[in-house]
Specification:
The complex is a heterodimer of chains A (459) and B (302). Chain A has 459 residues and is α+β, with helices and mostly antiparallel strands. Chain A is 16% helix and 45% strand. Chain A folds into 2 domains: 2-70; 98-452, Porin (Beta Barrel), CATH 2.40.160.10. Chain A is built from 4 helices and 18 strands. The chains are: A alpha+beta (459), B alpha/beta (302).
Chain lengths: 459, 302
Amino acid sequence: MDYLCCRFQWLVAVGVLTLSPSVVLASDETDALRRQLVEMKQQMQSLQNAYEDKLNTLENRLSGLEEKSNKPASVNPAPSSPINSVRSDATGNSSDFQISLTGLFAAGGSSVDNDALEGLQAGAHDPNQNGFTVQNVELTIAGGVGPYFDAQANIIYQIDNEGETVVELEEAFFVTKSLPFGLQVKGGQYYTEFGRHNVLHPHNWSFVDTPIILTRFFGGDGLRSQGARVSWLAPTDWYSEVYFGIQNAKGETVTSFLNAAGEEIAGRTLLDRDVRDFNDLLYSVRWLNGFDVSDTLSMNIGLSGVWGPNASGLDTDTQIVGADMYFKWQPEYSQRGFPFVSSHTEILKRWYELGDNNDPSHDELRDTGFFTQVLWGFSPGWVAGLRAEHAYASGNTSTDPLRDNRSRLSPNLTWYPSEYSKVRLQYNRDWTQHLDEKTADSLFLQVEFSLGSHSAHKF
Amino acid sequence: MFKIKALLSALLLAISLNAEAAMRVVTSTQDLAAITSAIGGKHVQVESLTLGTRDPHYAVAKPSMIHKVYRADLLIVVGADMEVGWLPPLIQSARNPRIQLGSSGYLDTSSVIPLLGKIQGPISRNMGDVHANGNPHYWLDPRNGIRMAKAITERLSILDPENSEVFQRRFNEFEKEIKEKLMAWQERLLHLNKKPVVAYHNSFLYLANAFNFNIVDEVESKPGIAPSAASLNSLVKRIQQEQIGFLIIEPYYEKRSANFLNKQTGIKVIVLPQSVGAYPEIMTYFDLFETIVQALEKAGDS
């Protein structure tokens, strides 16, 4: 169908040729001649352009054919109409297959020693030792799987404090793309959609480490497990989505629930408790709303809840609820997404039933915490951030690093030299009860690179 | 019985009225929205996901966008990597079977454009934010506007065959108007013939092609990478040596570098809207070129 387009370019060129002489009506002969000369030049240019266009088209065709001959099976989705004809590209431009590797490294120093620092930086991907930390090297593969599913896998490589390489399957899931009634199903191993931060991979964080309250409730790796969830886009005038999920409640990535046997909470060692019935699974709900307040201000408001069994007894359970709010302001004119101001706040509360009813030391642990972070992208590529956090719990918890009264203030500065890299400097000031010093000061320098496909711009 | 019949016919009427409601078209940019409105008229209801005041490459998949794409009958995008940062997650979140890649409700207009600026030879991110498949700012050539309009006309006709004649008629008018205006615009910019021009970002390649001027350099040291003091200084030398008269820049880019070059060399800085909606008064595809031509016309007065 290329000839259609070429013919079309010719038409434009011929149109310019035939119509332009009629415009020349100057009375002065020399003037008219001069103008005619200029116009002829221009006509020549139009012709040249038309030729160039034609050449371009042919070139496209040629390169398309070359690629076709190289690749026996084109992964391109077949265009359903004959319109998509000029550019026959199989170069991956319109392919949705993505593969990328991000590396996240940190160097840091703290006023406290490594043991104490590990207690403060409780996230498994947080910089947590004096010196260098390989926080996260993540391989992401994603794309369409036929007309009904998309799929994604994130495989993490990490080097632990003993220098051993650790490999972990962070996420691997499918997600449907054309169910009716605004429904979508996701299944596999995935981050539970609880709040806004839990689902983020370390390279998408705005700070070098995980908020305190999330490491307390969801452990070092965030709340993720095997299961399935369904979400529903409500037919409202604004964006409103409801998620409901069921996942396994056992393992070290579901810390507040069955966790790994032998782990401790509030001095009690967890049992090896298995799934006996539906009550031993993890249930989660989330209701997320989003809208534009104006052309320059957008926001998200969400409520989340998750409940399931915990392994402190044979019949004990845990409930966690959370509220999250996010807004982002960007002026009408902005360069590469800058400047902007965004704010992200989450507040979470947990009720943890400790020991069975007939247990003399039966108790309920109540933990609460919040974090709020503000980012200011003040110049293209430059973002200043400030995060404030506080967490506290019921009972006498002053010696427990995971339940004491704790506050942290973290200013940081991030520079994005390009869309594929960043350099971040962060200072953490900690106020904590469990350390003799009561305060800790830490400084981290973080560097990230990203290879491969263009990563998504986060709202 | 009669009541049931009345009820049924009322229901049928409601359904048929619903079916006649305008097709919902969502576009990634206001340029695409303007062209779609020009072709679809009252038979389409068009919304753009991004504002013409911002660089569409750096948009994010906002919740309001998910809501729009979820309800769309047709999604039209610029393609050529322009929306690569936000369209894939948006399409996944929107879960709309009508607008999936490869279905009739998904139109990437770059597929009908002879793209310029393809990278020959090896490609590396050392080169900055380059697009292997060609420069995506192709709507800035009115001749490409005709191609886009043609593709949109054909797609609207597939989705709404009953109104295909209307779309075709409106396309013919659109094409005729562009061709007529293009002649006039080119004539008004004759003074630019082959003139060397500096651009801030490599987004005016197609405009230069349409109006026959040469973009010889960019203020950005590499596409998408902010200029450094060294790169600005070497540009100062080049502007002086080659007597480059104009610097063209989009309204949303920083003006410090351009002002610096202006002070050092006297080069004229001309702010050009790059999209419909870049200024509130630019409402149609024609307004866009009228404003551009006016700005460039004044530049020739000196």
